[in-house]
Fold:
Amino acid sequence: MKLDATDLRYVTSDEFRVLTAVEMGSKNHEVVPTALIAQISGLRNGGTNKLIGSLAKRNLVSKVQNSKYDGYRLTYGGYDYLAMRAMSKRDSMHSVGNQIGVGKESDIYIVADAKGKEMVLKLHRLGRISFRAIKDKRDYLGKRKSASWMYMSRLAAQKEWAFMKVLHEHGFPVPQPIDQARHCILMEFIDAYPLRQISEVPSPGKLYSTLMDLIVRFALAGLIHGDYNEFNILIRRNSGEPIVIDFPQMVSTSHENAEWYFNRDVECIRTFFKRRFQYESSLYPRFRKIMAEGHSEGGNFKLDVIVAASGFGRKDMKILEQVSSTKILFLKYLILAPLVHGDY
Structure:
């Protein structure tokens, strides 16, 4: 869904209280009963039904009727408002501008602080397109059903925030993280183009070497990007230097499939440079050699350990990996199904 912040300033504190109550009720209810919303919100003078109606008109909650009771679900619009209000109260974000990017599982907007400084707001939206069908096949979160995609979007944002923060603190070419709330991340605005939009560069060989060196640098610090391609690499307009973005799929070099992820990152760059710039090099990093060299140097500098210690634990990582692996299986099914059934 598209972010519409027009009504954000007109939502009252009591309405936000009710909206928060719906969010809290969603932790244990697929459809949150109206009586429970009233109980959680704790409004002394009542009027919960009227406030819920106002929120529903703005599409911040959605009414659901079933055989047992009537209730409400939080929408992504409501989740957006809760996140933006949290950032606004911390004075990290003041206004919302145009949408500048859209992906399978995120939306990107230009926003600004109170002084007019431009920033980038990324909203994670896991499961909003074709992968919504996966939810019917397998639920990783027990009683979390309707809220599961929002919860996993929140986990994805927390993971990206944790990795971006530690990478930026250790001098890696990534955006400066500014704030994070629920499924949203606020980061610095960088005047750059996505690599996929660039048709020619002064020296393809130099850029190729720089990008491969970054893969090695990540690995020596204990990390693998996992989606290192022309969509997630920005090129600064003034200097031509690369900036790496998008970290929800980042994994440790100790991951059981680490070599596969590493090789895929390497191959994505090789394939792109061959196709776009007609540049092909026989030189590229090998995972086992890099790991052997890292161990021989005796380095104990592991960012994956620092990230795990920062609060984004193994359990949260496992949930996101399960979802990611299910998506891969789902995509393989979409590709192979026509062949199995003879539809060419």
In short: Residues 130-147, 328-335, 337-344 have pLDDT under 50 and may be disordered. The chain has three domains: 5-77, 90-190, 193-324. The chain has eleven helices and 13 strands. The first strand starts at residue 32 and ends at 33.
